[in-house]
Specification:
The protein is mainly α. The chain has helices at about 40-70, 70-80, 85-120, and strands spanning about 1-5, 15-20.
């Protein structure tokens, strides 16, 4: 569609606009156009192991930092009669508490953010692959 228009007050200047309009309805028989970058799913698959390893290294570093900052407390507890097996149980309990706290907070925040996104985009359905 070509639209010719004269700018008001200047009859000499003529402007030409070229525009094309495509209307797609949900009931049309047109095939869906392919996504230009089909490699994006492969890139996501390649980055997932990197993100997983980085997360595991971060968790291990946090746990080691927690253990090293409490070394003086462990020494005092050993002097008060804590056995080596008791110290290992105490460390495992602290690590388990840390992991369960992270999982529970992550699940709660994830569900709340998913619900928030569903409220914002209420016209569509949520589907999980």
């Amino acid at each position: 569609m070509i639209i010719n228009a004269k700018i008001q007050g200047y009859p000499i200047i003529t402007t030409t606009f070229v525009c094309s309009i495509k209307l797609n309805s949900p009931h049309s028989n047109h095939k869906r156009q392919p996504i230009p970058n089909e490699d994006s799913s492969k890139e996501i698959i390649k980055t997932n192991p990197i993100l997983f390893v980085a997360t595991v290294v971060g968790i291990i570093q946090t746990l080691l930092h927690m253990i090293y900052t409490n070394r003086s407390q462990y020494t005092i507890q050993r002097l008060l009669g804590l056995t080596p097996n008791g110290l290992i149980k105490l460390l495992c309990l602290q690590v388990l508490t840390f992991i369960l706290y992270g999982i529970s907070v992550g699940l709660i925040v994830g569900v709340l953010l998913t619900r928030l996104i569903a409220l914002i985009d209420s016209g569509s359905s949520i589907s999980f692959d």
